[in-house]
Each structure stands twice: as C-alpha cells, then as structure tokens.
Design a protein that fits this description.
With 212 residues, the chain is of the alpha+beta class. It contains 7 helices and 8 strands. The chain folds into 2 domains: 4-104, Alpha-Beta Plaits; 106-210, 2-Layer Sandwich (Alpha-Beta Plaits). It has helices spanning 3-7, 24-42, 68-79, 82-92, 128-146, 172-183, 186-195; strands at 10-19, 45-52, 59-65, 95-107, 115-122, 151-155, 162-169, 204-210.
C-alpha cells in the first residue's frame, strides 16, 4: 500500500434498512431525499443504494468520514435540527428493521460509480496479521489488473475478523469482467491458494446500485 493510500484512511458508516411490507418505494423515496438534504446542509458524503442479486427489499445508506469525530458531529447536528428529525421520523415509519455498521477504510477505493461489488471474507483469528498482509497485496494486484483501485474495509463494529473488498464500475458487466480477469491471472490464483491457510472457507459477494 502506497503512502498516498495510508494518508487517505477514513471511516465508513452503513445503515441496512428493511422496509415494512409494501413500503419499499416509500422508503427509497424518503431515504434518498433525506440523504440529499443532509449532504447539502452538512457537506457530508452519504449515498443510498439497493442490492442487485441479493435482497430486493433492502436499502443501504452509507457515508464516508475523515474521522469518527466528524461522524459524531454530523449526528449531533442533524439530531438538533427540527426539520431533519421530523423527516427522519417519517422515514423511520416505513422501516421494519435497521442495523448500523462502522468500518475503517484501510485501502481507499477508486472513484464511486453507478455500481459496486462487495466481496466479504473472514480472516482466521489464529492468522489475522498474515491474512491482512496477504489481502493488502491482493488488493494491490487486482487494482493493477482492473485499472481501478480496489478498496478494503475492516470492521470497527461487528465481526472483527471480517474484511471487505470494494470495487466500483459503470455497469454490472464491468464488475463481472473484473472478476473474470482476476480469475485467469496466475499471480491471483497463487495468492488465492495461499489464502486458504489464512481465511475461512465462506466468501460472500454482493452487487449494489447507487440511487442517490
């Protein structure tokens, strides 16, 4: 990882929202409007997205923050804003379930585009440092292969051994093409085999589309 990458470390927050039955569109409309207003009012970098190939009845609201103190200031600001808290209450009335996650971006992804893919893996607790070093090298390599920076997110809350790859692209086909390109590369294949010593066998992939 380059010095530039280290300097750009930041935090990401993600709220996973499950709407009430029949209220998906209301949730999306209210959520995207709320995100836009918060970004305009507070200068935040938040976004709304939906899953593709996963749970269609789900909305994600994510935000990037230079430090957790910035996130704290944001929360304190909107919670004392009567107009925004009213809109937040309306948004919440459409929701069946919600869960928040916080992660640290340990490798900055490229410029955000229309679609994203998240590859979730889990490092074995007995080989955490070795696994983290290997995943950093793998992210460097696939970034060279793809021509766009692969991001890495480590958990601040939740499962402390999880690691998430993040890639952006203009289309689903471009995302899939990245994976197909990696899979035929000998260096990638060797790293993947080496990783079996450091990583759990489970591996999950999610596609998403940004909608606001």
């Amino acid at each position: 990882m380059s010095k530039k990458q280290k300097e750009k470390r930041m935090y990401i927050t993600a709220r996973e929202v499950i709407p009430l039955p029949g209220r998906l569109q209301d949730t999306i409309t209210a959520g995207t409007q709320l995100v836009q207003e918060m970004n305009q009012k507070f200068g935040s970098a938040m976004a709304a997205s939906t899953e593709i190939g996963g749970n269609p009845n789900k909305l994600w609201v994510t935000g990037f923050w230079p430090a957790l103190s910035d996130y704290q200031s944001f929360i304190e600001s909107y919670m004392t804003d009567p107009e925004l808290t009213g809109k937040m209450n309306m948004f919440s009335s459409f929701i069946s379930e919600a869960q928040d996650q916080i992660g640290q971006v340990i490798r900055q992804p490229g410029e955000r585009k229309a679609f994203a893919q998240m590859h979730r893996g889990r490092i074995k607790s007995t080989h955490f440092q070795e696994g983290l070093e290997l995943i950093m090298k793998l992210a460097d390599h696939i970034s060279e292969l793809s021509g766009t920076e692969a991001g890495l997110v480590a958990p601040v809350t939740g499962d402390q051994y999880e690691i998430i790859f993040v890639n952006y692209a203009d289309s689903l086909q471009e995302l899939r093409g990245m994976v197909e390109n990696w899979s035929t590369d000998e260096t990638y294949q060797d790293m993947f085999v080496q990783g079996s010593e450091y990583f759990e066998s489970s591996f999950d992939v999610t596609y998403s589309r940004f909608i606001g």
